[in-house]
Amino acid sequence: MKKRIVKTLLGAALAASMIASTCTGVLAESEENVTLTWAVFETDNYTAEVWQHIIDAFEADNPGIKIEKVLMTGDSRPQFLKTMLSAGNMPDINIDPVDLASTEGVYAEVPEELLAKFEDSAVVSFNGVKNLVPAYKAYRTQVFYNKHQFEDAGITEVPTTWDEFIQVCDTLQEAGYTPLMGVGAADIWATAFGYWTGVVNSELYTAYPNFNEDILSGELSWENDVLIDTLKSWQTLTPYYHKGSMSFSNTQATSEFLSGSAAMFMDGAWSTTTIDNSDEYSADDFGTFMMPTPSGAKTYCTMPQYWGVSETCENKEAAFKFCEYVLGGNPDIYRYYLQADGTFSVTKDPVTYEMGPVQTEFVNNLEGYTLVPEAMKVVGDNAFPTGFEDYTLKSLQNIFTGADVEQELSTWDAEMERLASAQ
């Protein structure tokens, strides 16, 4: 699921006032007069029209249950939900609820009969409580590239090693092209996204197969040599990035890449859908390849996505009915939801869809690579504390703009411990 949040003038305060008048404003005693609020976000792929199509289908098949959309705004969806929780206006159903799932009493326990419909590996618990509904899995970073720019620069093969990748960057620069487009640092999550999920995560899990457990137990520090060296390698790529990388939003960065402002763009599988479905650009003009790593590590990661039903929801049965309907109960709607952002089914009876050429290449590239967890998106008892990822994202922005790597990482262990103690 792509995290390109469409920024609007609606802040959390406005959303809170809206929800106050509608959230759980239902007649609990009558299933025929139920209104549920559903917190969603909008991106280039997850548009208002996508959410409305899902709502319309559910309401048509479930008369008496109404769904009211709540748009999560700002740079951080977890922070938006924390604001709503603090205001006493938590939406009934939340997309992307993971950061608050470890806090007792925020989300309701999911019925076992609903969880039984999903792959066992997708079901997670916090201190024995299963309070998240699996939604999908999203394949993370590969490098998208402009075939015409590669050809014009005389590059006939995609790089498979770190040294070859650097050579490609040099060759593109010599030919007058900008090698790399940042993912869009105006959206804080996007600054390091491509490099972190495509390179850093691979290096960490190759060196430390139990990385999250080792960090949480204190056996391993964030100030480890692998992370230090890999982030320093990232800094060596800075001269290859487009000068607008720190000012573009994710949406702007994607558009700039597609229009030819840079030759390569590290992003997730959702960009395959953007390209394959584009009316403006041809999928034949773009390709993908696995991002090489300095050590030669060959892994990839997926992000699990979940939904959560708020403990304050007065109609939990109806809320879980909505979750079940969208997330596999109606295969056509689940397929529509998955295909919108290029994500993949986590139901025991898989729901599939026809992929376009770029998405097909993206998936085929995974052959020969090992699946590992995405450290910052691990869910359950090995998850990092709420708020820690947001903290690291700010630190990674500093590193990208030249801050000392060791100095930045020196604060991570203490901050993680502080946040863990506050949970």
TrEMBL record:
InterPro entries: Bact_solute-bd_prot1 (IPR050490), SBP (IPR006059). Its main location: other. One of its GO terms (cellular component) is cell envelope. It is found in: Cell envelope. Keywords: Signal, Transport. The keyword Transport applies. Residues 1-28 form the signal peptide. Pfam families: SBP_bac_1. Belongs to the bacterial solute-binding protein 1 family. Part of a binding-protein-dependent transport system for a sugar. This is Probable sugar-binding periplasmic protein. It comes from Candidatus Blautia faecigallinarum.
